[in-house]
Amino acid sequence: MHVAFHFESPGDFKRRFLSDSIAISIVTPMDNQLPNDAAPLSQLPETHMESIRILESAYLRHRDPIKQSGFSGGTDRWRTERFPLLDAVDGDGDFIDLGCANGHLLQSVLGWANERGINLTPYGIDLNPRLLQETMKRFPDKPDHFWVANAWGWLPPKRFRWVYAIWDLVPIEYLPHLARHLLQHAVDRNGALILGAYGSKSEDWPSVAIADVLREGGVPVSGVSQGGELPRGGPVTRFAWVRRSDWQPVEQHLPSPCDCCEQVK
Ligand SMILES: C[S@@+](CC[C@H](N)C(=O)[O-])C[C@H]1O[C@@H](n2cnc3c(N)ncnc32)[C@H](O)[C@@H]1O
After folding, report:
1. Domain containing 111: what range?
2. Which helix (H) or strand (E) holds 168?
């Protein structure tokens, strides 16, 4: 089956950690595509790692907290395009943002949840230490809730009810493996893994069809939501979530502790 990734050409795609006009576009070759049930590579490609490292100075050039999170569409669109991820969150608990940047999304999510009477406790990781420091400044009473870490292969010290990640933390062909790893090691029994994909309204770019990517990779999708509207029609952002209760680890993914942990150092 074919998954529509909405990229510019079949061989290349543009990676965008910055949705909308704070644009850094990195063209990544897809010749290292993984079959869905192949063992994951032990490390992320160096080109990908470099594309993450450069975000630190790109984000911290700005003082506006939204721009420091990689979004330049302003406060109204920030809410319109991000709020629908809350559709997955139906109760109190720990919420971790994998790739939390300066923590502004985390802070927003806590406030939005509160409007719905839901009480969330913030946690986060980011690969970039200076960005993580910005997050920690937002939550000065929770210094032990934040870690400099790579989501790929991360073995968390505890489980979290709600685990949020955007798809571009890893090359897209790694995403189903990342999802399985997080469901196995990070998501609590009564929780869910929530994945986000951001397009760009100003550039009229659709987001990745995240639910299709997961299903294609053998990961069941419990629910979806979307936010904003592109000039060409269709959503700007898409979210898909997998409830831990809907996910059955396939035996081949679970020799102890699990094959992705065996592979990912
Ligand atoms: C676009 S920002 C997202 C901020 C916020 N989570 C949001 O959704 O608005 C992406 C962040 O993810 C971090 N990041 C990217 N890949 C990562 C990885 N594999 N592990 C940990 N952090 C990563 C980057 O350093 C950057 O701060």
Report:
1. 12-263
2. none
